[in-house]
Design brief:
single chain, 112 residues, mainly alpha, 2 strands
Length: 112
């Protein structure tokens, strides 16, 4: 899977679109994500750590993914990759990311 890493607007929009595709509100389910999606999320969160839209939509997508056991297992296996990025997102954009990051971390650390 390739991604357009030169445009924060495209990445931000892609994360929002992935969230809309992954979450089935009627059935209350979240589709499993390919491992490459997590690679892209990490790369984007690193490259655009000061982009409010990328961080907000990445955190929103990751929060949605916590509601899938399969996705959560992948995230837990990559805890080291995610924790510093999530901490940075919550610290840089507390209003937009703080609550989402709290939920993600609680889920990843089995605190929910």
């Amino acid at each position: 899977m390739r991604f357009h890493n030169e445009s924060e607007e495209i990445l931000s929009s892609a994360f929002a679109a992935l969230n809309n595709i992954a979450v089935d509100i009627r059935c209350k389910t979240v589709a499993p994500a390919p491992n490459e999606v997590f690679d892209i999320l990490i790369a984007a969160m690193v490259k655009y750590r000061f982009s409010e839209s990328v961080q907000t939509n990445a955190c929103f997508l990751l929060k949605s993914y916590t509601f899938s056991d399969e996705n959560l297992a992948v995230m837990k296996a990559r805890t080291e990759d995610f924790m510093s990025l999530l901490t940075t997102a919550a610290g840089t954009f507390p209003q937009q990311c703080g609550d989402k990051v709290g939920h993600i971390m609680d889920s990843m650390l089995d605190l929910t």
